[in-house]
């Protein structure tokens, strides 16, 4: 999916950029600049997924899952920088001699809206299915493109109405639309950057899903109590840290067998779990 996104983003970037330049549409050129960051973002997603799928090694015993969060962060930073650049250029255009865009710019923006919405729907489903933050970040990028292309289309329509009514002052709607596009881009980039940094700081799984894992552990024979349970998100997989209490009178071998059973139970019922660390405490009623 990420490969297809890259190919389509390249085509859309070139198409909107060329048509925007020929049709003299600042809004469509701004939208093309946004799509250009999508190209870089799609490359970042591909690289992130590639490294995230590498198996654990001596240096990275917990795997390389956080590579996806790093990729998502790169996408977010590119979005913010591109948005700021487009905001500046749009403001500058508002104070120059304005020219009405050609109608082909409107058709290009509407085609981009349809294509990007289809890409968003497919990629967000793939991201949720595979628990991939990089794919979900790329999907959010597609949705921001939908909004930006819509804003560009509205600005172009108003400018074309100005042509029809012979009201040149309406031409300013085109660079204003470019400015609105830029605001949307910066907002989406900020949100993605915030979420990625939160995950890089070892964000724990939500309480509802953690409770499902706790229920699994509690059903294992020999587990008297769960003293602590933490589930860390590490890219597309989870890492579980759990402390359990067992009968203090059993042997070390019996306690070891209980931990093996706990691990097997979790791995069997929760396929997103990559690794488990289990600590055994002696159980006392008080």
Explain what the structure shows:
By secondary structure, the chain is mostly helical. The protein folds into 2 domains: 2-200, Cation efflux protein transmembrane domain (Alpha-lytic protease prodomain-like); 207-282, Alpha-Beta Plaits, CATH 3.30.70.1350. The mean pLDDT is 80. The protein has helices spanning 2-22, 26-52, 67-94, 104-130, 133-165, 173-200, 207-218, 252-269, and strands at 225-234, 237-246, 273-282. It has a 3-stranded mixed beta sheet with strand order 1-2-3, with helices on one face. Helix 1 (2-22) runs antiparallel to helix 4, helix 2 runs parallel beside helix 6 (173-200) and helix 3 runs parallel beside helix 5 (133-165). It starts with a helix and ends with a strand.
Short characterization:
This protein is 68% helix and 10% strand.
Class from secondary-structure proportions: mainly alpha
Can you count the helices?
Answer: 8
Would you state the CATH class of the largest domain? Answer: Mainly Alpha
Gyration radius over CA: 26 Å
Q: Give the CATH H-level superfamily of the largest domain.
A: Cation efflux protein transmembrane domain
Task: Provide mean pLDDT, rounded.
Answer: 80
The side-by-side strand order for the widest beta sheet comes to 1-2-3
């Amino acid at each position: 999916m990420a490969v297809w996104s890259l190919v389509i983003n390249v085509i859309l970037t070139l198409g909107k950029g060329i048509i925007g330049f020929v049709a003299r549409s600042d809004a469509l050129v701004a939208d093309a600049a946004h799509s250009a960051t999508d190209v870089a973002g799609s490359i970042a997603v591909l690289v992130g997924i590639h490294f995230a799928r590498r198996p654990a090694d001596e240096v990275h015993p917990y795997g390389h899952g956080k590579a996806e969060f790093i990729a998502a962060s790169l996408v977010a930073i590119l979005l913010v920088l591109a948005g700021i650049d487009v905001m500046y250029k749009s403001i500058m255009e508002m104070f120059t001699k304005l020219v009405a865009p050609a109608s082909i710019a409107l058709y290009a923006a509407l085609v981009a809206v349809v294509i990007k919405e289809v890409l968003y729907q497919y990629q967000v489903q793939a991201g949720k299915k595979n628990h991939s933050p990089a794919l979900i970040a790329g999907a959010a990028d597609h949705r921001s493109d939908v909004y930006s292309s819509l804003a560009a289309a509205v600005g172009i329509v108003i400018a074309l109405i100005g042509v029809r009514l012979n009201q040149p002052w309406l031409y300013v709607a085109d660079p204003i639309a470019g400015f609105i596009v830029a605001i949307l881009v910066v907002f989406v980039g900020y949100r993605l950057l915030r979420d990625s940094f939160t995950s890089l700081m070892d964000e724990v799984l939500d309480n509802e899903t953690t409770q499902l894992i706790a229920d699994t552990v509690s059903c294992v024979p020999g587990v008297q109590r769960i003293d602590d349970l933490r589930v860390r998100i590490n890219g597309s997989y989870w890492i579980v840290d759990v402390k359990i209490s067992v009968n203090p009178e059993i042997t070390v071998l019996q306690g070891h067998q209980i931990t093996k059973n706990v691990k097997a139970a979790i791995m069997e019922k929760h396929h997103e779990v990559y690794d488990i660390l289990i600590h055994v405490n002696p159980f006392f009623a008080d």
